[in-house]
């Protein structure tokens, strides 16, 4: 039997122009620019298109050298726009024009942190919902009043455009974009290599309350609850069950949980069930009803509803897209 053809690597464009943040450039490069094929991660084709081939100075004495012209954007599957050192920095007109053309073609575009300002300059966020660093929300609203700016989310999706909050949220969005194309296991392998959390939902709050000695004690109890829940996902856990395990009332438990994690107990539990189901669908041939039972959804119908609502696909389609051949599971970093 002839060998299956090698899939074409996903083409990623790190849009490059003066004023972009070195941190975001590093995040994009770390996620898509490192060869991890020995751990089962697919190869990526990452390039740095720019309007001008001259080296671009970055803050901290670093330099970024473009390796493609803006014409390469016509070949890109995904364009990632770094944040800005000065959030009102005007992007070069050719960059804005290239972004508009790419969006008209249906190319996916993602902006990290203040990169939302660049998309707004191009008019791509007019009439759409977007997010940026919480501290920049008033500035984005003031200068781009046609954008609906959400004040408290890690990342958002609107009509093939992704925006994210600041710094670490850019990592969350990049890993999420990997997950949507290549599956949860690939994203988890990259996260392990980067020593970062493999999955935080976009709806999670950008920041949590400042810890206090009492909050530290509560966090210890809540960490125990989360560990307990992860080992009992197959059970019909309720907020009352989890609160009892923490030794709190349900109302107090819910308040402390959100204060220390940035999300509600129910949203967190659904996210963990989805992540567990994704892994089983990728790694095993278990029947759908058993996957639903092992991950606590209770029925295939309920699991399908959550996949549609949170992942935009069905469990069967997810398995068809991301099922790994036997013996090909990525290894730990």
Automatic annotation (TrEMBL):
Keywords in alphabetical order: Transcription, Transcription regulation
Protein name in the entry: AraC family transcriptional regulator
Keyword Transcription regulation attributed: yes
CDD domains recorded: GATase1_AraC_1 (cd03137)
Domain HTH araC/xylS-type positions: 223-321
Keyword Transcription regulation: yes
Record lineage: Bacteria, Bacillati, Actinomycetota, Actinomycetes, Kitasatosporales
UniProt cross-references to PANTHER family, sorted A to Z: ARAC-FAMILY TRANSCRIPTIONAL REGULATOR, HTH-TYPE TRANSCRIPTIONAL REGULATOR RV1931C
Organism (species): Streptomyces camponoticapitis
